[in-house]
């Protein structure tokens, strides 16, 4: 491949469409699974053992994604339907999130809330199998760090914008719009419709501007395709080890995403509006970190960016666990945000650099497997520790354990250098 091809101009329409999908999709898990509905569920729908129930549901969703993602990725590669599959699961995720509007603050709605939340979380996680595989369609190898970082940054800032709307239009409004009342938690429930509409509207540029690269691979059975995909990973020195390390440190991040809002509410007595302000502040730092990390990655490499960020997360995460006051909690949480984005973004671009184009969705299916196959363990242990000890801080210990394990397995040497020729 020539320099002109590998280091040419950016496909700005494709980059814009790619970044806007992150902008569109990030508010759904942010409002639903982390900062608004999750807190609503554990404080109003199931105040007794709600944290544990939410943890078990999140664990089951992660496990389901882990085992289904490689098959769906292989299918999308074989049929060249990555964008179509992205559209289908985006639709499922948005519609199911809308249905959370029907969940009232009564214990009788607990099971319904868990089932619908499971569908939403599952669908939104699956979208990233196809979305991640499309990175190479909009960025050349030497551009992937920047494009991945920018899009991840867009995701955080999209979540911020949507959180601000949720805060000022619904949560803090003296007179909530549309006849909503606090008697039945109407403003909180309405934020789920807001997240879904946001997803549908802002994902449109992705489906217009991203041009999927067609592949022509042999039509074989799903099981054989799965085996072939795993063999491809084995053929790239160091990639399997990286996948295993990612499995571990992503387990820690899964706990953070699932319980950050709950932790703030339970440990430091954050009310709903303060949880949202906390979410906005953390996402600002995450967005800045993701964009800066993408720029740094194109200079020092994805592997070094991931490794450095993990060390910082371990150190600052310990600060969150031991924070004696709310002020210290804020300080460490905001600093943690700076390094969450680079870990996620650089992990994605690292795999995109190595995965063959014709098998990219399937490799990202295994990437999701590595991120989800054991991620049920973290939320489950978190829920069990909190239930057993009655102390919310105890659950956060598992995050540090996963970060340490991830750093050890990651080692000091990344996969073999990507060959652009």
Would you kindly provide a written description of the structure presented here, covering whatever features stand out?
The chain is mostly helical and 421 residues long. It has helices spanning 3-6, 12-25, 27-35, 37-45, 50-79, 82-99, 110-133, 135-138, 144-171, 186-202, 204-209, 222-235, 239-267, 272-300, 302-322, 326-354, 360-372, 377-389, 392-410. It has one domain (13-206, 220-410): MFS general substrate transporter like domains (Growth Hormone, Chain: A, Up-down Bundle), CATH 1.20.1250. The protein is 78% helix and 0% strand. The radius of gyration is 20 Å and the shape is globular.
* Sheet of most strands: none
Note the gap between the termini: 5 Å
How would you spell out the order of helices and strands? HHHHHHHHHHHHHHHHHHH
The percent range for strand residues is: under 5%
Question: How many domains is the backbone divided into?
Answer: 1
Shape call: globular
Which fold does the CATH topology refer to? Answer: Growth Hormone, Chain: A
Question: How would you summarize the topology of this molecule?
Answer:
Layout: H1 3-6, H2 12-25, H3 27-35, H4 37-45, H5 50-79, H6 82-99, H7 110-133, H8 135-138, H9 144-171, H10 186-202, H11 204-209, H12 222-235, H13 239-267, H14 272-300, H15 302-322, H16 326-354, H17 360-372, H18 377-389, H19 392-410
Helix pairs in contact: 2-9, 2-10, 3-9, 3-10, 3-13, 5-7, 5-12, 5-17, 5-18, 6-7, 6-10, 7-17, 9-10, 9-14, 9-16, 13-17, 13-18, 13-19, 14-15, 14-16, 15-16, 15-19, 18-19
């Amino acid at each position: 491949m020539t320099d002109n091809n590998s280091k040419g101009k950016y496909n700005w329409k494709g980059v814009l469409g790619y970044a806007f999908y992150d902008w569109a999709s990030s508010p759904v898990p942010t409002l639903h699974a982390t900062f608004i509905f999750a807190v609503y569920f554990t404080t109003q729908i199931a105040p007794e053992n709600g944290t544990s129930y939410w943890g078990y549901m999140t664990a089951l969703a992660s496990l389901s994604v882990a085992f289904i993602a490689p098959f769906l990725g292989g299918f999308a590669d074989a049929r060249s339907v990555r964008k179509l599959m992205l559209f289908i699961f985006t639709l499922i995720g948005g519609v199911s999130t809308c249905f959370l509007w029907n969940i009232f603050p009564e214990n009788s709605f607990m099971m319904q809330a868990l089932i619908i939340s499971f569908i939403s979380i599952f669908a939104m996680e699956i979208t990233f199998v196809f979305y991640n595989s499309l990175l190479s369609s909009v960025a050349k190898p030497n551009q992937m760090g920047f494009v991945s970082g920018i899009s991840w940054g867009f995701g955080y800032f999209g979540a911020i914008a949507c959180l601000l709307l949720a805060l000022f239009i619904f949560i803090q409004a003296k007179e909530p719009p549309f006849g909503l009342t606090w008697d039945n938690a109407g403003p909180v429930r309405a934020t789920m419709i807001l997240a879904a509409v946001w997803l549908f509207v802002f994902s449109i540029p992705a489906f217009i501007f991203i041009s999927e690269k067609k592949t022509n691979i042999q039509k074989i059975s799903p099981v054989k395709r799965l085996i072939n995909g795993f063999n491809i990973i084995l053929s790239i020195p160091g990639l399997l080890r990286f996948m295993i390390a990612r499995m571990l440190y992503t387990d820690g991040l899964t706990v953070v995403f699932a319980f950050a809002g709950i932790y703030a509410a339970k440990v430091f007595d954050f009310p709903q509006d303060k949880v949202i302000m906390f979410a906005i502040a953390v996402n600002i730092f995450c967005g800045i970190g993701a964009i800066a990390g993408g720029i740094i990655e194109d200079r020092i490499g994805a592997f070094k960016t991931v490794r450095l960020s993990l060390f910082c997360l371990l150190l600052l995460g310990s600060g969150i666990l031991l924070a004696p006051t709310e002020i210290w909690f804020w300080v460490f949480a905001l600093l943690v945000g700076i390094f969450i984005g680079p870990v996620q973004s650089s992990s994605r671009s690292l795999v995109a650099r190595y995965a063959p184009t014709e098998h990219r969705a399937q490799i990202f299916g295994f990437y999701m497997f590595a991120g989800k196959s054991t991620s049920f363990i973290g939320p489950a242990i978190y829920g069990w520790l909190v239930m057993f000890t009655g102390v919310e801080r105890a659950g956060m210990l598992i995050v540090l354990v996963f970060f340490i394990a991830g750093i050890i397995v990651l080692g000091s040497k990344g996969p073999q250098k990507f060959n652009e020729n």
